[in-house]
Amino acid sequence: MSLPDIGTLLTAADFEPYVGEILLVDAQPKPVEIRLEKIEHGRYDTGLTRHPFVLIFSTPWHVLLVPEVYRMQPADGRPMEMFLVPTQTAPGPQRYYHAVFN
């Protein structure tokens, strides 16, 4: 088993320009706007090819994305794919999601 080429792995730095920005998610039955709220950096050095991090996103409460790999694109960036999971969120104005990168 070989490790992936480190040049192709997304890092937290790739997402820093998009914190606070809206990304368009290719969802069904129609695209969904999702906001990148923050990046949480891992606390431990895993010895892997990149430092772990978690992206925290939000949508309005009435929007629900199920756990799945989604293709998304920032307004001024390249498309990317990631596995989004709804975070257990109390009812309110926003619903939260996370994507974990180890």
Write the layout of secondary structure elements.
Layout: H1 12-15, E1 22-25, E2 32-41, E3 53-60, E4 68-74, E5 80-86, E6 94-101
Antiparallel strand pairs: 1-2, 1-4, 2-3, 3-6, 4-5, 5-6
- Biggest sheet descriptor: 6 strands, antiparallel, barrel
Secondary structure tally, helices: 1
- What is the arithmetic mean of pLDDT? 88
Number of separate domains: 1
Strand order of the largest sheet: 1-2-3-6-5-4
DSSP E strands, number: 6
CA gyration radius, whole angstroms? 14 Å
Structure description:
This protein is mainly β and 102 residues long. The chain has one domain (6-95). It is 4% helix and 43% strand. The chain is built from 1 helix and 6 strands. It has a 6-stranded antiparallel barrel. The protein is globular and about 40 Å long. The model has no long low-confidence stretch (mean pLDDT 88).
Task: Describe the structure in brief.
By secondary structure, this protein is mainly beta. It has one helix and six strands; from the N terminus they run αββββββ.
